[in-house]
Design brief:
Layout: H1 3-24, H2 32-60, H3 73-76
Length: 81
């Protein structure tokens, strides 16, 4: 994916995340399916941001940013904050 595609994905996921939070604000909270979806969205957002960082690092190092690859969720979620 290139940057515009990644940003489109981030925006779509962020909009879905916002809808879930708005739905939770009705006093009922999130059900288990919605909570699980929210967790999945957060993981996917982490993967997108990781890919953007990889592309920027490759570009800064004079390498081809198109050689950056989406990492598995298990890898990205193990990063230290």
């Amino acid at each position: 994916m290139n940057e515009p595609e990644i940003f489109d994905r981030v925006n779509a996921l962020s909009e879905e995340e916002e809808r879930l939070y708005q739905d939770a604000g009705d006093g009922q909270g999130l059900g288990s399916a919605e909570s699980e979806r929210l967790r999945a969205i957060n993981v996917e957002l982490d993967r997108c941001y990781d890919l953007l960082h990889q592309r920027a690092a490759r570009r800064a190092a004079g390498q081809n940013p198109d050689e950056a690859a989406v990492r598995r969720a298990e890898v990205v979620e193990q990063y230290q904050q």
